[in-house]
Amino acid sequence: MSEFLQLFFSGLTVGAVYALVALGFTLIYNASDVVNFAQGEFVMLGGMVTVFASAAGIPLPVAALIAVSVAVAVGLLLYWLAIAPARGASAVSIIIITIGASILLKGAAQIAFDKQFHRLPAFSGDAPIDVLGASIQSQSFWVLGGTATAVLILYVFLEKTLVGKAVLATSASRLAARLVGINTATIMALAFGGSAAIGAIAGILVTPITLTSYDVGTMMALKGFAAAMLGGMGNPLGAVVGGLLLGLLETLGAGYVSSTYKDGFAFVMILVILFAMPQGLLGRRTVDRV
Amino acid sequence: MTALLNNRYAIVAALAVVIAILPFTFPSSYYLRVASLVWVSAFASIGLNVLMGKAGQVSLGHAAFFGIGAYSTAIGPAHLGLPSWASLVIGACVSGLLAYLVGRPILRLKGHYLAIATLGFGVLVALVITTESRWTGGPDGMPVAKLTVFGWRIGTAYAWYWLSGAFLLLGAWIALNLDDTPTGRALLALHDSEVAARVVGIDVAGLKLRAFVIAAVYASIAGSLLAMMNGFVNPDLAGFQHSVELVTMVVLGGLGSIVGSIVGAAVLVVLPQALTVFQEYENLMLGFIIIVAMVFMRDGIVPMASKLIASAR
Question: What pTM value is reported for the model?
Answer without folding.
Answer: 0.88
